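Why does residue order matter? Because the sequence determines the fold. Keep that principle in mind as you read this record.
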Amino acid sequence: MDRKTRNILLVIIAAGSAVEGAFLAYAWEVASHPCGPGMEAHEGLDIMSSRINSPTNITLTIFNSGTLETTLVSYRVSDSNGDSYSANFNPQPVFCGYGREYAIDIVLAGPVTGQAFTFQSHNNYTAAIMTRTSAFNLPLTA
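Structure:
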């Protein structure tokens, strides 16, 4: 084999190895983050709206502003007097994809801290949403 042919083959092999390495890195990223790869890996949640279903149940529309798969684990809802309810999500909702909205129900049926309260229209509350890796304190108006 002459020198020119050998050099061309070496360049082709090196280029093929680089492409394969990039593909494997991308595949690992997708496997590590089932929702897909993100340029900047972080969780982010924002409340877009709320709807009172009953005095003890409110539906929140949550906007996923993060790039990672986010699993909701538990919540605590507090009123302006510092009274709160907390409970675990069961099942635990999983949010995928930046820019998507999800509806979740918050039920005042967990352990009570302070005095019991119910959702009242136009009152302000704080929803502390805990994920597997983060906590978000989100203000909401019923």
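Residues 41 and 67 are 6 Å apart (CA to CA).
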